[in-house]
Specification:
With 201 residues, the protein is of the alpha/beta class. The chain contains nine helices and four strands, in the order αβαααβααβααβα. A four-stranded parallel β-sheet has the order 2-1-3-4, with helices on both faces.
């Protein structure tokens, strides 16, 4: 996909043959993440298509005939981790955004009262991202599965656990305040010294 901003297209093309640069978009439920990921795609910036955990969750739920319980979490978490590692290692050149990252596992494991697996600990140290952007929560749920993961009263707790997971993994996240999707993407691109997509709109 070609960006609507020629300057951004040129910057992405120039970076495409260089070292891989990996940027995470994360946050708790009701953070506006889905809209931002879509805007990244529309802007022509390479990005994961969908958060792996959601599709894997749906498959587990179909197989078990129920929402995941605590005792189901281990197999689910390891499958999600494998998907994130595959996404990470498949990218070898240029810029790419990720719909959540490996250390998100710390937040979700903590929410369900589980300790991080050795596999998660190892992957967190082995596969490092260049910058992590944390979206501060908005007001509404984006996806029906978000209701399963966290009721309204738990949104802040999930968000805090995800953020803490990244701090524990040695990252200094960049926080993206509630705003329009376009303004958030402009902020992220400016932080990375990329041309702002809105300037080509």
């Amino acid at each position: 996909m070609t960006s609507t901003n020629p300057a951004l297209s040129a910057a992405l093309e120039k970076a495409a043959t260089g070292e891989p640069r990996r940027y995470v978009i994360t946050g708790g439920p009701s953070s506006g993440k889905d809209d931002l990921i879509e805007a990244i795609h529309v802007a022509g910036i390479p990005c994961m298509t969908e958060e792996p955990g959601r599709e894997i969750y749906r498959r587990h739920r179909e197989r078990l005939g129920r929402h995941l319980r605590k005792e189901d979490r281990r197999a689910y978490s390891l499958e999600v981790l494998d998907a994130f590692i595959a996404e990470y290692t498949a990218h070898t050149h240029g810029i790419r955004f990720y719909n959540r990252g490996i250390p998100d596992g710390y937040g979700w494991e903590g929410f369900f009262g589980l300790k991080a697996t050795p596999q998660l600990e190892d992957a967190t140290q082995r596969y490092r991202y260049d910058t992590v952007f944390v979206l501060d929560p908005l007001d509404t749920f984006e996806d029906p599965d978000d209701i399963v993961w966290a009721k309204d009263r738990e949104i802040r707790r999930v968000h805090e656990l995800i953020v803490q997971g990244y701090y524990d993994a040695g990252y200094e996240p960049v926080f993206v305040a509630p705003d329009s999707t376009a303004a958030r993407l402009d902020f992220i691109c400016a932080n990375l010294r990329l041309p702002r997509p809105s300037r080509g709109a």
